[in-house]
Amino acid sequence: MGPLDLAVANLTSAPVLAFAVGVLATVLRADIRLPDPVYQAISMYLLLGIGIKGGVGLREASLEEVALPALATIALGLTIPVVAFALLRVLTRLGPIDRAALAAHYGSTSLVTFTAALLFLEASGEPVEGFAATLLALLEVPGIVVALLLARRYRSDGDRWGEALREVVTGRSIVLLVGGLVIGLGTGDAGYAKVEPFFGAIFSGVLTLFLLEMGVVAGRRLGDVRHAGPGLVVFAVGFPLLTGSVGVLAGHATGLSVGGAAILGVLAASASYIAAPAAVRLALPEANPGVYLGSSLGVTFPFNLVAGIPLLAALSQALG
Amino acid sequence: MRTELQLVTVIAESILEHRLVNEVQAAGATGWTITPARGEGSRGVRAADWEGGNIRLETLCSARVADRLLAVLERDFFAHYAVVAFTQQVSVLRGEKYRA
What we know:
heterodimer; A: mainly alpha; Na+/H+ antiporter like fold; 15 helices; B: alpha+beta; four-stranded antiparallel beta sheet; 2 helices; globular
């Protein structure tokens, strides 16, 4: 598929349209939010499902195959927040604490964006390495740690960073993702075949439901974005394109396939909105949630979903 | 036989649950109840508003413990977090249960 076909296929996919409906519902002030326990259960399902599939893929992969992309992923996780922190100083008037909070979000990554990208690449016939979920797990934590360290120099009062780190490492997203990887590694193809109807066949339907909810949440953040100013919006759109392109290049350089490199690009481009907000709220309470959630959830997530994923896929194809 | 005690109610963003429970224990309360809560206040925005919302924490304790807990809330929580706290005088059966 050419870039234009990719874009059309993406825009007319059920998950992306569900997201748009969610945003629209917020604008109309219609209440279509999922009940909290259902939302929690669906997010557990997505994390565990992605983990299990990644574990099965990891079992089939050789160490040489995984090692270099894994190292590249960690290197991205360590450098992205530093670049974000510096770049925000030029683009915005935000103070160091708000900049560090944003750096934590962009340094970490987003499960839902990753999942949407996997389904998108599958639909466009571009195979992705089975171990891609391992890279997702690797990218989740380092960015947050680096960003909290950056903020540490600017904070005088009570240091909560140990507690925040615990929150990230023992938080639901890491435990379920890594737990899923372990399950997948242990059970392999034969075991996965038995749970496939639940974690495979209906997966994109469940993601569609989840994205409806994400649309509502992102829609509520649109107001925050307006307050944040043009510099932040430029950052929230431009920075993912920069990090995403670097991710695609790193993927090709470390031997990933066209689909795999596109996924690494998407991982680098996406901003966290589960692990990072929790850690930042605990460690940097004076940072403004309107800024970091408005940027990551209100701008970057929809941008990646609609444009970032097909653009990075097209870039990866052009290089491949 | 009823004893006069303080009922301290804290409504806060759910991310603070562990930390608040630690403070309640440190202040000397013998137990607490946590329920999920919804609502709106002057803060509006919170990081966790789509991951758990708010909690309502209640504890029965002596006036001394209540004072200690409120002082900690004032010092460490009010500035940056969405937290509401208030106390009521209540009559409790088996009051000795709630005194450490």
